[in-house]
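Here is an idea for our session: we take a single protein and study its fold together. Once you have written the record down, we can walk along the chain together.
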Amino acid sequence: MHPAIDAAIFAACAMGTVQEVAWMAVGPSAADAARMVRSLDVAVSVHLTYASEWDRAKWSSITGRLDGADGALPSSPADLRAVPPDLLIAEGVAQIARGRSLGLALDSFNFHIDAPAPGLAADIALAAGLPCRDIGMGLRPQPSWFNSFLDLSSRPDETKLQALLAFIAKRGDGRHCVVAHPGQDRARLEQLCSPAMGSRYSWAVDFRLSDADVLTDPDNAAAVRDALARSGSRRA
């Protein structure tokens, strides 16, 4: 998505606290991020993107058929509800194809913010030959994909570390999902979004800084190592 976000993700991967990354095909750093991801021992899911929601950074669709007069995707996936399904499917397939062309070994896809239409996940999965990690429309992973799920980003900053440590401590065998959105360097993150955007600024900047702090906290790194050792797995 952006170098300030990529750097935070790779820092957490280097500590072993992240075992799956969601890669965006339309971000300005997509090719560089793909190159870095290929060097890591992590699972990769394509983060299908049908929105360009911030005011200081914009990105366009791969196909060029979903962009507005400004040449960018709309601010919300819901703005594409009236678009013919074949155009939405084509864009999803094109984003997955770009990941494959950049050498990524993809194991799934999911949606940035949300899917723009009901049934789109199933249609793209069939067309691209890749499973969807999410339940239709919405961000929650399918129960068949993960045994448990924690949304870290939306929690108050002061509760994130303890919530994450408690979640890890209670996990048994299986695949467990923690959704986080780390980022580094407030000034660089503000290249994405201005404070005038309110809650979107929080997602672009504040949530990402606190998520990065938690993911790279030594206590979290130790908890993840212990959990992996208990399970005999390389990934949680």
The chain has a mean pLDDT of 90. The CA atoms of residues 152 and 164 lie 7 Å apart.
